[in-house]
Every structure is written in structure tokens, then in C-alpha cells.
Specification:
homodimer; alpha+beta; 3-stranded antiparallel beta sheet; 4 helices; 3 strands; DNA-binding
Chain lengths: 111, 111
DNA sequence: GCATATAGGTAGAACTTCTAGGTGTAAGGG
DNA sequence: CCCTTACACCTAGAAGTTCTACCTATATGC
């Protein structure tokens, strides 16, 4: 068990998961790998964050799960975005943009 | 008491406070106004978030407090950045940059 | 035979933010 | 004179997310 750094996701985890799932059906373990890979190892989504998040998103009706066989021949839970989930993703993208713009305003203030 | 929206600060509050205090001694109430003003009302730092945060930052040795008279002639606690606080701000700025870059990587992935 | 990677999960701690209250002074309008 | 608003401080407890630390099980490679 190697885990050097812990990178706090600061409320972005849900959005990142929704975004990755938006590319097509994918199982939990692969989601965390994908996020880590695309972010060039900045984000390390540990399983203790991942699975609770997935269940949260499913409970809210944003994700839908289905058991299927994975590449490796094992059973895995594949997640898909629901219509509500797609809307939620759009909302979160917009919010993120606004948030980072607002932060930028403050950080760039020179005064 | 009017409070329409609640804007979640997603872990950026400490950084924003440090940044605002970096401009010079300022008291709590004014910090929240400043953040709201500069962010064009995106961030509304409620007092229940503000004061615990200020005490947290003071406890960690990043801020230093001193009672002085404010513009309005009343006593107020003026906060200043310590040397440690200035270092912390730099660290947080770097982290924020990395975080938003990493998020951008994922959001801009077209796959 | 053992470690690692894959795949799922939970419980509980830690931390931040929000809700909802509290104190008190000063200024301005009715 | 009372009421409201702005200023300025504060706390307790709820809610929410993320982290730490575990658990299970199979397949593959050394």
C-alpha cells in the first residue's frame, strides 16, 4: 500500500466524476485511474473517497449503475450518466467557472 | 437579515482571507466585505464562516491580531499576516494554481 | 507461495462550512 | 422615543465532504 501524498479535492470530486463518466460507461476503479492519469497524477482519488462519492451521485439520481464484465473478465459496476446527471454536470461546470473567475479576481487584485 | 444565496467556498476561504490581509492590517468584518466586493458578490462570507476561519488562521500562526480603533471610531480586531502566513499564502497560491490546472486538464479532455 | 493489480466495499475521524443564534454600539428615519 | 440598519465581535451544533484505515475477493506474474 503506497500512498505518498493526499490531494484534497476541494469539492471538485463530484464534477470530475460526472465529467469522466460522461465519456461513456465506466466502472469505479477505472474512474479513479482516469482522473489520476488525465490530471497527470495531481489527483489521487482513493477508494475511501471514490465509492462514497459514487453512491452519493447514484442516490441523487445523477448516475446509474449496472453490473457488467470488465476488460479483465471480472464483474464490475459500470456507471452511466442519467439525464439529470448531465444537467448537473452542466451546472457544476458553470459553477466551477464562476468560482475560479471569482478567485482569480481576488488573487489578481494588486492594490 | 437577508441572505439569498449561500456560496460554498470549497476550501478557498483561507487563501482568500490571507490574500486580503496581505494588503495590510484589516479587521474581520471588513475582510468579508472586501472579499464580497472584489469578487463582485460571488463570495458572501458569512460571519459563521469568517470568524472560525480567522481563529483557525490565528491559531496556526498565520495571522496576528491586535485591537485598534476602526474608521467608525469603534474597537475592532485588526489582523496582520505573519511571516509564516506569508509563506502559507504562497503555498496556497501555488496549490490553487496546480489544482485549477489539473481540473482544467480533465474538463478540457475531449477524449 | 506471495505480492501486486484489479474490483468492490464500510466505519469513523477530521475538517470545513453553514445555520442559527447571541452580544453590543452608533446612526438615521418615523 | 422607537425601530431598523450597519458595524463588529462571537459561539454551538448540524451538515457535508474527504481521509484514514480497514475489509473482501480474483487474476497474474515472480
Amino acid at each position: 500500500m503506497t500512498q505518498e501524498k493526499s490531494e484534497f479535492l476541494k469539492g471538485t470530486l463530484d464534477m470530475l466524476i460526472l465529467k469522466v463518466v460522461a465519456f461513456g460507461p465506466i466502472h469505479g476503479y477505472a474512474i479513479s485511474q482516469r482522473i489520476q492519469q488525465i490530471s497527470k497524477d495531481f489527483f489521487q482519488v482513493h477508494q475511501g473517497s471514490l465509492y462514497p462519492a459514487l453512491h452519493r451521485l447514484e442516490d441523487r439520481g445523477w448516475l446509474q449503475a449496472e453490473w457488467k464484465e470488465s476488460d479483465t473478465g471480472r464483474e464490475a459496476k459500470f456507471y452511466t450518466l442519467t439525464r439529470k446527471g448531465r444537467k448537473q454536470l452542466e451546472t457544476e461546470l458553470l459553477n466551477w467557472e464562476r468560482l475560479s473567475d471569482a478567485v482569480a479576481l481576488i488573487l489578481r487584485t494588486v492594490e
